[in-house]
Write a structure and sequence with these properties.
alpha/beta, Rossmann fold, 6-stranded mixed β-sheet, 12 helices, globular, disordered N terminus
């Protein structure tokens, strides 16, 4: 293990952060270990998380947040960033890290408890053999992700209720939101993405996605720098959804050929104009008459000004959440 793991193991004794919430300052070896590039990267991620939290009122005074940790790069980063945010936030909230051991073959059950212990964070490990259920119900060679996800969601909701969690935090990032939108457009005939904040179907749980403004590439670089003990996501033997794989490849190609396009798509998720789509349930086209005011006006022959990128607006709200 690299030196950074020693830093992670000593985090509970080094809770004091600089104003930018970049790194710990009690021990000079900490800031020496984290390079300037990593510090700048963490600051960018913290700023994105702080803005998402403020924009969607994700965290409120007295919240108990169940942070779902799978052992992947995104959930590790989510926990790190929320712990740092808690040190500077204008409200008090409690974090409970949670992992679900689904009894997949070869799952290293000891890694996450040891990691949580090293952080000094409150945690809960749930053990449910959903792997056997999925294998019994899904024919060999078919994708198991859908059923597995439903079973996992039900367990997480139950545990959140048992632990008194008021919010459930998931590690979905900006590209997850965009990929979901294109999946629904291409294969479901619907303009629908993955919301940063969601009320469960039964109305009992609020799910938040604090990484909604964070780029996947930034999270990957951050995870490598932090040297997290990553647990593979394919222990069950299931392959990634082929359709999502195609969308991910498409976005990757766009990002390579047309820098800024992915950011523009992300911005579009917050700039929806129902009067310029074709959904009669969102805009009353039937009663449209002369001289009625339009929010956007007639842009048929005009080139519209493009707004700024998602996650680069409202600096005042960043400051209110302790991110300068």
């Amino acid at each position: 293990m690299r030196r950074i793991n020693h830093i992670i193991e000593t985090l509970p004794e080094k809770r004091k952060y600089v104003n930018s919430m970049e790194t710990l300052v009690d021990d000079p070896t900490v800031s020496a270990e984290l390079s300037g590039n990593v510090q700048r990267l963490k600051k960018r991620l913290m700023r994105a998380v702080g803005q998402a939290v403020a924009d969607f009122n994700m965290i409120e005074e007295g919240d108990t947040i169940l942070v779902c940790c799978s052992g992947g790069k995104d959930s590790y980063s989510l926990l790190t960033l929320l712990m740092a945010l808690r040190e500077r936030a204008p409200v008090r909230f409690r974090l409970i890290a949670m992992n679900l051991d689904q009894k997949q073959p070869g799952f290293p059950a000891e890694i996450l408890p040891a990691y949580f212990e090293s952080l000094g964070v409150e945690y809960h490990i749930a053990t449910e053999d959903t792997y056997s259920i999925v294998k019994e119900k899904i024919p060999e060679g078919k994708t198991t992700c859908s059923l597995c996800s439903r079973l996992r969601r039900a367990i997480i909701y139950r545990i959140a209720r048992e632990l008194g969690a008021t919010k459930i935090a998931l590690g979905h990032h900006r590209e997850d939101l965009i990929e979901t939108m294109f999946l629904n457009m291409f294969f479901g005939g619907k303009i629908k993405a993955m919301p940063p904040k969601l009320l469960s179907d039964n109305g009992q749980h609020i799910v938040i996605r604090p990484l909604a403004y964070c780029a996947e590439a930034d999270l990957a670089r951050f995870a490598r720098a932090m040297d997290y003990p990553i647990i593979p996501c394919n222990l069950c033997g299931s392959q990634e959804n082929a359709q999502r794989k195609q969308i991910k490849a498409m976005l990757g190609e766009w990002d390579r050929l047309y820098p800024g396009r992915v950011e523009s798509i992300a911005t579009a998720l917050q700039n929806v104009v129902p009067s310029h789509l074709a959904d009669g349930t969102l805009y009353d086209f039937k009663t449209l008459k002369h001289d009625m005011p339009l929010v956007e006006g007639d842009l048929v022959f005009d080139r519209p000004d493009l707004p700024g990128s998602l996650g680069k607006e409202s600096p005042v709200r960043w400051i209110s959440w302790g991110v300068q």
